[in-house]
What we know:
The structure is a homodimer of 369-residue chains. By secondary structure, the first copy, chain A, is of the alpha+beta class. Chain A is built from seven helices and 25 strands. A nine-stranded antiparallel beta sheet of chain A has the order 10-6-2-3-4-16-15-14-11.
Amino acid sequence: MKCSFNKSDILNGINIVSKAVPVRTTMTILECILITADQERICLTANDMELGIETEVTGFVETPGCLAIDAKLFSEIIRKLPESLVTIDADEDDHVEIRCEKSVFHISGKDGVEFPALPQISKDRSISLSQFTLKEMIRQTIFSIAQSDSNKMMNGECLEVQGDHVRLTSLDGHRISLRSVMLGQAFQDEKVIIPGKTLSEVSKILTGDQDSEVSLYFTSNTVLFAFDQTIVVSRLVEGEYFRIDQMMTTDYEIKLQVSKKEMLECLERSLLLVRENDKKPLILDIRDDEMNLSMNSSIGALQESIPIQKKGPDLMIAFNPRFMLDALRVIDEETVTLYMINSKAPCFIRDEEGSYIYLILPVNFSTAR
Amino acid sequence: MKCSFNKSDILNGINIVSKAVPVRTTMTILECILITADQERICLTANDMELGIETEVTGFVETPGCLAIDAKLFSEIIRKLPESLVTIDADEDDHVEIRCEKSVFHISGKDGVEFPALPQISKDRSISLSQFTLKEMIRQTIFSIAQSDSNKMMNGECLEVQGDHVRLTSLDGHRISLRSVMLGQAFQDEKVIIPGKTLSEVSKILTGDQDSEVSLYFTSNTVLFAFDQTIVVSRLVEGEYFRIDQMMTTDYEIKLQVSKKEMLECLERSLLLVRENDKKPLILDIRDDEMNLSMNSSIGALQESIPIQKKGPDLMIAFNPRFMLDALRVIDEETVTLYMINSKAPCFIRDEEGSYIYLILPVNFSTAR
């Protein structure tokens, strides 16, 4: 195989597919990036067997072929080359020469035939939306997937299509994050659970452009994201997702509006008094036009009051400040609305249109002091 | 003690003195920042017993006194407060209230009297130079102090004053870095060894301003740096420094000039093939108007050629590319001049005026392949 690229083109391709190179693996071939060059196109591929990424790179093919090169070394070498034409030339024994101006690297490659191919996905079940929308939906929900491996379903997010609506939901047993967006047209209904890692890597590669589209194709056990010159293929999590709608009451006793910035900064300050992995509650004493927030820990104490607009009775309720903070951080509005029933029932942070809902369970604060 | 500050003033002071707070210590009082407030001024102090920093902070004293607060918590709290007036109020039992707008923190302080005072330094032996010059001299030599603790002297740098010249030297057994600068006036001769950590922390605090001065005061076992509102006091390393001048020959057989950028980039590329802690030599094959550089390792091989201007015979010589790279990185000139004698003798990188000299020992490359 012999082909040439502009350094910036090949580097861009490497940066995209590298996200599917596993950090640890027993199959050394997976630590490689596969280059496939035929007369029509040049592709880079990486695959950790759960997640695979393939991207097309502009370049000139002199001799078609395929070749696998250690991803880390390949990426480092290309990054350090001058901004010029890069030629990659591999002989039959997979000895690789990488040449750029007066630099010549010789490294060992691997036979590209050993590299596991990405699965072929049929394209009859699909949706399309803007890259911006998908990137935002992921950012606004990914933080509340469960971190432990005990429940695979909680490590993923549920993506549901109903007519012209798409909804992305994550939950970890203490909170639920939900974003819902209207699509430009109606699609066939879908309900799949996508691994959190897949969504997180996809969101890093998406340019977030309002005018560029991303298409999702579904089979019973895989999802494929296609956008720009790239496809990302991932396994789905198997199983029936939690029944979210049953938990999403719109009843409330207390509705309060507060400045997001003021509350966010107070939450950040309260966390200074909580050691990592500690679960100290932040107590909210909600009365009339003021919310008093207090945190007590072995490190110290914080009291603070924030002006609010409230409908309904006074209430004393406590939360894990981290969970409140995570939700407020991804809300774009300057004023947020909190809905509560009593000190034992979940608090909802949502807008009028239901485009976002953050459910956070309160914590018992009789045990707090 | 009770006093008030603008958040930005107290935060700036904390950031300065924090550099002398030890990461690990058995004396918990040293993990604190000392606040000393009398009618005239407010000072913050930190002290790890080797290095002490004191800085004056603008503020208003309501009740004079002194108080020690855990540096990490203090810094985190102040950083997260609104940009407003911060009031610190401590009672006789060192319970501390930190108040800013509607936030009130309560934390425990420590009795300031327990905090070890900085040594008093007599001010009869001194030099002055611009902050910019000192900061640059440190940056340009600090990288070649020894990292291991086996020789205290190699962990420090030798600062020598001779008339109106100041010279800063570091060495680690494989290389010597030397910067020399002319001062605006003559001072009393000095020769001291300053710990590398002190110089590194001082250089972080120096603004690097051309027009601001820094004064150094010497005693037999301490040095004090005074600049802006800050003083840094440090122990000196005891002993007689290595006889540098004996090693600094100006004889040479080969003089070659090369583009710093081209050589630097080639050195960076060659290091991609060297694993951390590995000592693979980069072989320089110097002939006529070209230098061929080659690196061979278990990872791969690199060949590269760079145009040069040479006087003297051809030469084959090898170096640890890291040492070459460190020196070239801190030279500002676009073209550097290398002086060599043979493949066993040190290479000198220096300018005509002797304002910088980097000596690098070659490595044996008969064992290289």
